[in-house]
Amino acid sequence: MSLHHTFYLRVGSEFFKGLMFIGIFASLVNYAVAQEKNSQDLVTAFWKSPSGEQQDKNIEALISASPDALTLYRWLQRGPKFSVDVETGVVERVRINKSGLEMPYVMLIPPSYKPTKSYPVEFILHGGVGRKKWQDGDVFWRGGYDSLKHPDKIVVVPAAWNNAYWWQLEQAENLPEILKAVKREYNVDDNRVSLTGVSDGGTGAYFFAFKQPTPWSAFFPFIGNAAVLRNPQSGGGYRLYFENLRNKPLFIVNGEKDPLYPVSSVAPFMKVLVDAGVEHEFVPIPGGGHNLNWMPSQAAAIQSFKEKNPRVPLPDSIQWVADRTDIYNRNHWLRIDSRAGFDSPAVVAAKRDSNRIVLDTVGVDALTLLISPDQFDFGRPLEVIADGERVFEGELTLDEFVMLDWMAIDLDRSMLFAAELNLKIKPR
Question: Any idea what DSSP says for residue 110?
Fold first, then answer.
């Protein structure tokens, strides 16, 4: 064989090897793409399914399909695929709670909504909750919804009435479930979900700030009064623990001459906020009444406050006071499970420093710490000190069931947990 032919044989051999490599590489890429699509389809099915048998099946499918726990965690972080085929404009919905009560709400979806973009969400709570239940076709917001629409955010307007005040159990369950319903259908920015309330709705905003702050970025109580929550005759009768307000900022507006909640009546509350170190901005309106006539002059400041205060999903420091453990007992990654006594509240101050958590407790019998790989290093041991004593030291393990259980509870891509520590605390 001549050198000339030998040269061409060698070149041909390398050429065909290259073709084979390209073919194998393309097959691997196609396989990876198919796997990614399949994993996102599974996450989407899980994301959209309410609790029950179907959700259990979706959980089993996700665990079976994921090669390891870390991969499953990344799938959940990426989240579902949102559909382009959704309603926009004024979207009316009704949620039915566990007791069969119909809870209507309206979503204002930008006409230009794109499923690939994450949208801020603002819940707006109306006033006048002493009226009868809303009927079909009623408008929850006086003057209609046009003034509430926004091209770059989703606005949610729930309904309250004389048997479902904002600060009662029905609504404490209702608002988080409505938020999850919005998240199942639309692409939501988890860390820009704010709660605004007007008059009775402002009092409702205070309620969620005191009792259920976890999903919210900031609170905007307008012409309301937190003192209403203390009054049993108003449907409240709550004890208010100002430590619970330290993790979330408030933008508060009251009118000087408001016949219901004038500035003078809320001034003592503002002083307590200052003394307790609660981040807030208080805007008294000179000569202002019980109305929103001041809104145009404050709109820019309110929007700036929202932009400057996204939620921190995994704060390093948390304080929480709970006088119940069946509800109103959780703040982000801390949950109080049992109190040492029934006459006094349970108090916890928790601080994370690297892979160490320090707890200072009073009246606590048991609590749960939720551990996220985005906050803690799962490759190193975790140490927990409670009231000066070590109550846990050990390795962290990614748990698929914990991930999926808490994802189902929160439906929150930026606040994912992969381990759960249930700790007993020696009362002191």
Answer: -
Residues 244-299: tens digit of each pLDDT: 999 899 999 999 999 999 999 999 999 999 999 999 999 999 999 999 999 999 99
CA distance 355 to 279: 27
Q: Which secondary-structure segment (H or E) carries 180?
A: helix 169-185
Distance CA 86, CA 64 (A): 30
Write the CA distances from 97 to 172, 173, 175, 328, integer angstroms: 11, 8, 11, 18
Grouping H, G, I as helix, E, B as strand and the rest as coil, residue 343 is coil
- Give backbone dihedrals phi and psi of 57, rounded to 5 degrees, phi first: -65, -40
Phi-psi sector, 279: left (phi>0), alpha (psi -120 to 50), beta:
beta
Query: 3-state DSSP: the chain helix, strand, coil percent, rounded to 5?
Result: 35, 25, 40
How far, in Å, CA of 348 to CA of 243, rounded?
10
- Three-state SS for 20? helix
**Fold of the domain built from segment(s) 89-308:** Rossmann fold (3.40.50)
Burial 343-353 (b: 16+ CB within 10 A, else e): eebbbbbbebe
Q: How is residue 424 written in tokens?
A: 């007993």
| Calpha distance 284→262 (Å, rounded) | 9
- Kindly report, residue by residue over 303-330, the tens digit of the pLDDT: 999 999 999 999 999 999 999 999 999 9
Q: Measured between alpha carbons, how far is 378 from 375 in angstroms, rounded to an integer?
A: 9
Q: What is the DSSP pairing of strand 154-158 with strand 188-198?
A: unpaired
Predicted confidence at residue 342, as pLDDT, reads 77
Residue ranges for the chain with pLDDT beneath 50 = 1-11, 24-34
Angle at 115 between CA 113 and CA 118, to 5 degrees: 85
DSSP 39-68: HHHHHHHHHH--SSHHHHHHHHHHHHH-SS
CA 79, chain centre distance (Å): 15
**Domain ranges for the chain:** 3-65, 89-308, 317-424
Query: What is the sign, positive or negative, of the torsion defined by CA atoms of 112, 153, 412, 205?
Result: negative
CB 356 within 8 Å of CB 386: no
257 vs 259: CA distance, rounded Å: 6
pLDDT at 16: 52
Q: At how many degrees (to 10) do helices 200-211 and 169-185 cross?
A: 80
Model-level pTM? Answer: 0.90
